[in-house]
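INSTRUCTION: Work out how this chain folds

Token vocabulary: learned, describes local backbone geometry

RECORD BEGINS BELOW THIS LINE
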Amino acid sequence: MRGVIFDFNGTMVFDEKFHLMAWRKFFAEKIGREISDEEYQKHIQGVNVDVILEEYLGKKVSSEELAELTEEKEKIYRKLALDSGEFKLVDGLKNFLDELKKNKIPRTIATAAGFENVKFFFKNLNLSAWFNIEYVVFDDGTLPGKPAPDIFLKAAEVIGAEISDCIIFEDSRSGIKAAKRSGAYKVIGITSTLDEKTLRERGAAEVIDDYTNLKFLTELLKED
């Protein structure tokens, strides 16, 4: 049986603009300049926070400082997301998740976000209807960040599936590279921030804009 692993940001919700806005505000205060769209895609999107902070602050960050700075940035993000009125699951995803649940397909989320954000996602998007929060693999400081494959290997282990039988949904350069390195059966790219050509060049076997083509998605689960 196929297992399904979702990245979260940019894959289950199209919230990259809120993260970009939050990082811009955060770094404008910390280093005196805003980051560009290109910097965001190459050095921040899908990357663990400790790596981001050490690169941009130019110093080693202690665990205490990491926790403090991370929460400072994420509070900005969460407020922007909620205030927008646009924080919702990607079109068609609820129906796809219903299908996975109905057919008892093992599934979880593997995200570079921290646990405070995971709780925020579950509270505001009703994720407990389809996922067990205890099975979500998040950035707790114990795993190397993407493009290392560890987060997806852990996710497959948590849901009791072989990674070679798992389909991974991803949107970022580092995330797709991590998914490919994990040995997953198939990587599906989401065009939230990268175009189809770039996603395929990075290793996505299939590319979708959203989850509205339920027939196509369910057929993926039946492939030998």
Remarks:
- The radius of gyration is 17 Å.
- The chain is about 50% helix and 10% strand.
